[in-house]
Batch of 3 targets.
Target 1
Amino acid sequence: MDRTNRFWRIVLLALPLTVFGVLVVWPLFTSFYYSFTNWNGFNESYDYVGFDNFRKIWTDHLFYGAIVNTAIWMVAAIFGPTVLGLTLALLLDTNIRGAKIFKTIFYLPICLSSIVVGQIWIWIYQPDWGLLNTMIESVSGEKFNFAWLARPNSALYSVIIAWSWQQTGLAMVVYLAGLTSVPSDLLEVCAIEGASTWQRIRRVILPLLTPSTVVVIALSMINSLKGFDILYIMTGGGPFNSSDTLAMFMYNESFKKYLMGYGSAISVVLFLIALTIIGVYFRQLKKVDEIYG
Amino acid sequence: MADVATIHTKRFNPWPVTIFVVLVILAALFLTPTLGVLLSSIKTTRSIALGDLWSLPDSLYLGNYIEVLSNPSVHRYFLNTLIVTVPATIASTGLGVLAGYVFAKLPFRGSNLLFLVVIAGMFFPPQVILVPLFRLFNALGMIDTLWPIFFVHTALGIPICTLLMRNFFATVPNALREAAILEGANEWKVLTRVALPLSLPALAVLATLQFTWIWNDFLWPLIFTQSDEMRTIMLGIVNLRGQYTVAWGVQGALSLVASLPTILIFLFFQRYFIKGMTMGAVKG
């Protein structure tokens, strides 16, 4: 029995693990290796440069800009889609009429490509006839043609808002799933005891939603590290690198400037940040599991 | 019941109405961007440039769609995207079925750790493996073909597929497997004849999720393809932006046409889609 089991484990796992190993795990490790070289993407040969790439990182102001922007993106991701998603979930969980249609409307952006989302929002921010400026004009009564995506001060935030529009549905879905596990008799008891709606949300529902919150925040942080496609189409990291994130910066250095060695070093930093978040996330999940079963 | 009804009629509860109104406003705000593309696609570029994009049209202009659908490049993009998306969806789901079955039904020492390592794969930004994969496929002479996109999506789909299939197979009673084995079936027979027929819902979840992600992907075709013949649809949108710099209506029509497959899948298989999203998110 044991031997046949072992045989089948090997047979069934061979293909998936080989593909995963060759195309995901192995590249991850070779990324570390290339970060110590100056490979340029074309030549077969390259030199071993030791810690040069990492030394360059610490003095590269573009890198600092990318780190700061990624951090801004993360914070915005935690507060924007999470809070809005929670609000929507709470509103939709009240057996409201048409809840199903509302849910579909809020989910819909999830199934769109970031490229299409970016395209849509470029038009909202379009200086001459974009929706945002048109609305500002109709309120103020004056001509307004601010180029949201072409100004260093507003480009990053404009992209983050577009991105949040797409991500809110995901947060809402996770919270809605979490809300189904809040016992309704508990809420009835609260109502009978005279707890206000606000008290019920703050003292009962939110604590019970902790597992969902951990998931949503971790996902937001991880997804903000992946923020690339929508930036690529909306600003390309510009103007003057003002909306560069680490993912964008890594792509530009590797595939625009063909500094693949340097790009690998950036990807190592990106990996370490992601690893930290994932590590904290798994630990929190375990803690949450212990408390909430 | 009658008592409840009288209480309700006596004291008017303003909450449901308020919530409903708030939701309608939020839904309208949420729909506006999508509505914008829809509007742009049925208007002439001239009227958009004159600031007429955000008003309801008095006539339906189909010229943008004709322009998009008669463009041979667009046909090429669509075909390429299908050639990558369908096989990669099937392959990643298939590999997830194999691995998920072992993790659920044939656990071994260290299998939990191995499972965790595989699952972790879905959380990392793809940039982390960009350079080595480029070098690998460059050495294999596969740059500017569709092969690397297929392989990479198959590999990157393994974590989510394994996760969902393991969770699903875990709900298939062990007694079923044991009974089949006592009757002389081997694991392959148990998997294909007993477990798989039961897991059609899970397969539907994965198929919709994977199809959507791969169809919508932009980064991998950007890295691996160079010539226009090999572009996928999302890259095509970016490419055609050069060709139609100010033809906003055409761009809108193209965006909609490119999103149609995933929107249709989403609307028809919404239940599966959402289930996959939450399962992937919550259990990760």
Target 2
Amino acid sequence: MSAVNIWEKMLNVDRRWIFLGIGIVSIVPFLIGFGMPITTTIEVEGIFDYVDELGPDDAIFIGFDFAPGTQAENMPMAVAVMRHAFHNRIPVFMTAYVPLGKGMAVAALDYVTNPKTDGYYERVLFEDWADYREAGITNKEELTAAWESDGNVLSEGAAGWVFEGRDYVLLGYLPLFHLVILGMTGSIETQFPVDYHNNPIGGMPILMEHKSLREVDLALTTSGSAACTAWITYAREKIGLPIAFGVTGVMATDYFPYIQSGQIVGQMGGLRGAAEYEVLLKENGITRTTGKAFRGMDVQSAAHIFIILLIIMGNIAFFAGGFHKKTRLKGRR
Amino acid sequence: MYDTIGIWVGAFFTLAIYSFLYKENPVYRLAEHLVVGISLGYTMVLIYNSVILPKLLEPIFAGNHLILIIPGLLGLLYITRFIPSIAWLSRYPIAFIMGTAMGVAFPLTMKAYVLRQLEAAMVPLYSSGMPWYEVFGNIVMIFGTLAALIYFFFSKPHKGLFFGTGSKIGIWVIMLGFGATFGFTVMGRISLLIGRIQYLLGDWLHLIE
């Protein structure tokens, strides 16, 4: 076998071997767990610091502007910011730009309020605290005190209570969402008269204190498409609403110019961005553990090393085999 | 019980989709068609329940928002696309949507994507007290932007110091951008795989947390 044939074989290797290799390097780190450190970047710190300065009198929007296809990247971002907001008692509005985003919002809320999740938040549904609303108790601290004085005990392991309609509201999806954003700059209730559970949102404390996007302090859009730019166009440019992006890795480079121009307060790019936010949550004592994104970064690193090795080997074979002097390769290439 | 069934169904279809990596097969085709069909069906039901029913039909039948009949009829004109003799009627809702979308979006879009970006590119190369790395960054940004724009200027041949050298630098700038995008794309694709592996090893097989 001549040397040239070896190079040609390398370049024509059955791609299924590469898939198998990627599969192995993606599974092994999960089972072994290297725990590689992650440093944080100013783009993610920008979002974290901004949210961290907000409090119970403020409010944020989390846009679940993605479908299950990019759930692996976008979901940890939304979950991390939601936990941060719940910890700081910042009211959260949840919307969806795409139809399947509604299910993503439900899944994120279920995860954060699931007793199996470390440091979960115990959810109180809107109808369950109706008596307290009728008694005029809507302030979070007073509400929590009254709720607990009536014999409701926070479960061991839970980080706190979250009251539907007070601490969060799931508004859901509407078509032509860019026009919905525009409409919400005037009134949120005109766009969403009822929430996901068909509760009229007009009677919710969260809405009474934040009637339109003008009374909201940040909108984080977690997106797998260009939907995120609608928040800049229709909310940032129209009323100056601060915007943060949580976008997939594929899209991340497209939106760095918006950070430099000051149109967004920060950006989480791909799984790495979500992992950075999880690290910031842990370092600042907001959560006890990091989440799924951080655990996935070991795999990310291993897969990247494998891909870099493949690129180097491919280039060595290409040049050493003299293929850069030929117009086309033999075989299937 | 239902959760367990759901997890097994999810695991089956995840493996069915990944079976394409070996070769195309009927199980993959089944999963592919189900994804498309279920997504479309879910979206149709969602839009009916969240828009058509509460925002159109219920107000009309309640008799207090009869004006909604006009946009309702306008929307129905889309369906005339399926009847060739009156297909031209579908142009009216399209024209309405295009017109209003342009009117609403144009000023804000210009501001968001053009004026703000121009403003961000008009920075001083140097001012007193500016750290060296910021000066360097400004130089790279301004001359990089100009070089990339020169590359896309086709009214003059790319020859000489300004157009020739400028366009060559522009290519390098664009390639650097593509390289960064490729790196992020690899990360993105691996992230999707990671999500599925976490599902299979965690939710399904309980081998990891």
Target 3
Amino acid sequence: MTSTDLRILPRRAGATPAWPLVERNVVVYRRDWVIFVTGFLEPLLYLLSIGVGIEQLVGEFVLPDGRAVSYTEFVAPAMLAASAMNGALFDTTFGVFFKLRYQKVYDGVLATPLRPRDVAMGELAFALMRASLYAVAFVVVMAALGLVSSWWALLAAPAAVLIGFAFGGAGMALTTWMRSWQDFDFITLAILPMFLFSATFFPLERYPGAMQWVVQATPLYQGVVLCRGLSTGALGWDMCVAVAYLLALGSLGLVVASRRFGQLLLR
Amino acid sequence: MAPTATDRHGPPAAGRWRPLAGETLTPSGVPSATVAAVSGLTAATAGPEEPLVLARGLVKRFGDFEAVRGIDVEVRRGEAFGFLGPNGAGKTSTMRMIAAVSTVTGGTLRVLGMDPATDGPAIRGRLGVCPQDDTLDSELTVRENLLVYGRFFGLSRAECARRADELLGFVQLTDKVNARVEELSGGLKRRLTIARSLVNEPELLMLDEPTTGLDPQARHLVWDRLFRLKQRGTTLLLTTHYMDEAEQLCDRLVVIDDGVIVAEGSPATLIREHSTREVCELRFEVDDHEQVAAKVSDLAERVEVLPDRVLLYADNGEAVAQAVHERGLSPRGTLVRRSSLEDVFLRLTGRSLVE
């Protein structure tokens, strides 16, 4: 394949004005495909370390529907949610900041028929394509390791993409206010506690009453609820709340990011 | 068949954004293929008599700062039109409003017969923009920059590839096709930016200080390419603070200073109206040229005193130089030259263009 052959992508590229921006990112990443692989490796390594080591030290877990599952089976959907979060955030925060402030890619893009909202949609779409790849691969690995106990698990991959939509949209909106690379420490500061405490490694019931409300307010907790319900088949109404929450957060982020791009670039 | 105005609104579908060059007629009825493949001349919504850019009382404010303070501009099809002015005069702000990437604060503006406030995407689709700072995509190669950019205009991949190869030939970058943008010198980057701005076969090519920061050789190459585009019928709109650039490229220009237009016309007309035929420049070994100026001011129609020299404006510069020597004055340097736009600018604003 030559470096200019883009035919791995759908033919009707002109259908959405944002699509060429996705193509642009594909052209760039095709040279650095190794970066793609590393993004998938991290949560997988977590999963293996838990499955090989920690699972032996921890007992079984009892789900809301009364079934008992292994610790790895409990943690795996949370790793799926976290990997979707990280996958989408990388492109929409660091990637967007670099193109916005340093590389000035969007200044060139907005001199074409594309609008600020096309930039926001194009970047988010690409981040979600990446998140989708991770999600599908991760669900396949979970199934191969016997960590899913329901056909609902097939929906865990799209659920992970929804998590990517929420975090990608919110992350991109926040990125438009970033002044320097140092400001990204705030994102790390928000991500790490969320990764550790969003009912990822232990259930919500372990928290004292008021803390439960705080944990439930985080988007990753909502993502974990969704993925865990689907991978174990223990469904509940709280999953509908999670879907609505993630959809709303992602949409809000997309709208805010579009407006901010306009303010910053079309002055 | 030419698309109608409504066809051009909103994002285009791939491949039918604009008629292919070979199928269209220029307003004069000449098949555009014979004009040139790279030409920007195609059937347009704005008729031949309607200006491509029409600004009336155009104002741009950033907070309390008024960058553009009510300017009137009319750019006609096929001409090369220039904004001449020093840095900070409001040239770039005006260009950005015309390019539909900056909101108009006051006055009216029509570009290609459309309103930038509501038809931004449609206008941008038919403009070529070569910004002052290169906004090339440094993560892409030279050729990929053109391929990807063409896609933003809704062109098919095959069409992008065809135009990329043609344009790389036009700006003489054929041997750099697979180079990374970072490897290019300033002159090569500018040529690539020009090629990129032509990928949608624009009707109006806008260039913001196209040769600022380039060495003399690179400047001449850029001028040569722009001159060819002009010959092919592409309408050029450029800003510059170089008088030689304005004289070489522009059919008509406006002199802009502090957000307002201070003069308008062809380079020759401006020089004729605001200056004399020749200028005699005198440099003396003194700290204050004002004192010297007093002794020779009666020899010329007009005298300008700069920190390092005295300018005597007269139709016969040699005669003035002769008379200065006859008065027993011996300048360290004497230069007789023809008037330039620099002199026009000095006359109108009392300041030099390039400081």
